[in-house]
């Protein structure tokens, strides 16, 4: 039986989504989220036993000469110039790559198990699934039992702080179809993905040492995706990431000066201006921000003003998000005209900005999705060159109004009646 520390399923999830928990053979947490009625009712059950024989991820190993090899905990070091913590995850060099010219494996570890398939190192024990969530086998951050969360110093010099990177990294597989696109998922399946985000946000918030929970999606080879499968990730940091820290500084200063929260006022200002609104339903609004950086960028916020994190969304808002996100992905794929009227599989990053877990400034922050692509034409991408990479001083290749105008050509702003 699945037990929860903080997650409270709403009425829809209680009746239409079944969460089954197990542990993979190396000790990692694994969750099925089923929306198939046969599994929801209990008529069918999922395979919970991982047939692989994997070493426990926290047990010391043996090197090539037979000597004990201790578990290497991910490390992070602080940049004295900026205060940023930089995780250094050498284990990620060993992860399988199945997409793009640098592919190192022919199978798909995110696919359901295939009896008789020569690739038997997949992460999913069952031969089918709806949505699954599991801890990343090659995490950038993880807490190793017995390793103290203490500051040390590189070369014993107090300039360079170092700590174990005691965060958590999870993978969210949206659908078992290996060649499918997130944009093609039915809204019901996207609703299950939304529930997965809310479920994990609530549960991870209860884990010691976690300061920020960041669900995100990398999509497309140009983004650097190493596994071709509709999926996203959840990074849970033991610090507040630089982008959110900057936003928190501004939202708190705005509240101290004006007595209201900045993200709500930005949303209302965009709604008043109207020109850059690109999508709207009964519970969500999507707009191109007035100071957009990317050649394609849309921010999405709930219409309700006091939502800080994904798990605070009610059932109607979770359904509205599933509809909104589905339409955003479809229109993103249609944004660039390749000449055949079919658009393209848009490379994009979808980044959830949530209030931090413990920082007091969370009270004046609001949930928002920042969706963007660095593609600037059907056959060109935006390179982050000297000004952007060297100084973080952005130079836009277009205007927010032009981005919004293109979205307006792709369909109506009001999508309340869209059912697929």
From TrEMBL:
The protein's enzyme class: transferase
CDD domains, sorted: GalT (cd00608)
Active site residues of this protein: 231 (tele-ump-histidine intermediate)
Record domain Galactose-1-phosphate uridyl transferase N-terminal: where: 73-239
Keywords attached to this entry: Carbohydrate metabolism, Galactose metabolism, Metal-binding, Nucleotidyltransferase, Transferase, Zinc
EC number: 2.7.7.12
Protein name: Galactose-1-phosphate uridylyltransferase
Organism: Alloscardovia theropitheci
Organism lineage: Bacteria, Bacillati, Actinomycetota, Actinomycetes, Bifidobacteriales
